[in-house]
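We modelled the chain as a single entity of 351 amino acids. Its sequence is:
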Amino acid sequence: MINNKKSNILLLFLIISITLAGCTSNKSSKELTLVKQEQLILGTFGSISAYSNSEKEGNEAISKAYDRIKEIENLMSTSIEGSDVYNMNKKAGVESIAVNPSTMEVLLEGLEYSSITKEAFNIGLGSLIELWGIGKDWQKVPTSEEIADAKKHIDLNKLEVSKENNTAFIKDPKILVDLGGIAKGYAVDESIRILKENGIKSGVVNLGGDVYALGTKTDGSKWRIGINNPEIGSSNSIARISISDKSVVTSGDYERYFIENGVRYHHIIDPKTGIPANNGLVSVTIVSDKSIDGDVLSTASFILGLDEGLKLIESRPGVEGLLITKDRQVYVSSGLKDAVEILDNNFKIVN
């Protein structure tokens, strides 16, 4: 397998690190201390940076945020034995199980977004994800018969949840719930909540490329977040976006993939076809108030394609987007145009 997701994440970390190091202020910089912790978490690189009144205060706040992220991972991982999602899948077709209120919150968000995105986003896609196995030992191109069979077991009408009782029941024993396309965004939002509760007003959370920029830099200016070049083998940023108190999440066909018989197959599976989405897009970036929205909408917009994806983005309050096509054309939503700076002249904003 060829996989350059780690290099792209590291590049994004570098961009943010440079941005943090370049925060020049007079009075504020003398009062605030920059604290940063990095961890492997949620199966990816995690980095949390915060400006605080002291190193001790900053480290305590960041550690609490990481504790919450680990709690979410232990609840929503498909592979951690005893997690809510693991238990749901194990008991599929057998009985309902009690789930944590946090898991219920994410399940309900996932079900709502299935409707909003015309089923482009589907938290019951686990059977197809496992079938393709992208990034796993058994990754391969499935047969058309295997795909057709797996598609029979992604119907979210077979997922029954009770908010009042915090219970969930998968009626179809072959459906596998997978919250990988939404839980990371939820974890970013929760880590920001924890930082705020512990007095942090300025900083950056980055969980595998799901980024939230809290407040402003210490000089009062906005954070500048780089957008990766989506072309395989590239390591530069083609644009950057200036934001404060916003999330930036990107989904692209360059993140996780494998090559078989000279054809590249990426990880963003279209529920309608059962195969990786192929509609001319290579990258979708969502800027939103909440990272959970960015997590979902970056994937859904990629699957829907340029026209329908832009339409979905424009329809959502507080959400903006940047979509890149295979021919290096950049499309931005109406509220984002003044915040985007193109850094690579090979790419051009065309709308």
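As a brief sanity check on the tokenised model: Residues 72-183+212-351 form a domain with the T-fold fold (CATH 3.10.520.10). The CA atoms of residues 171 and 313 lie 32 Å apart.
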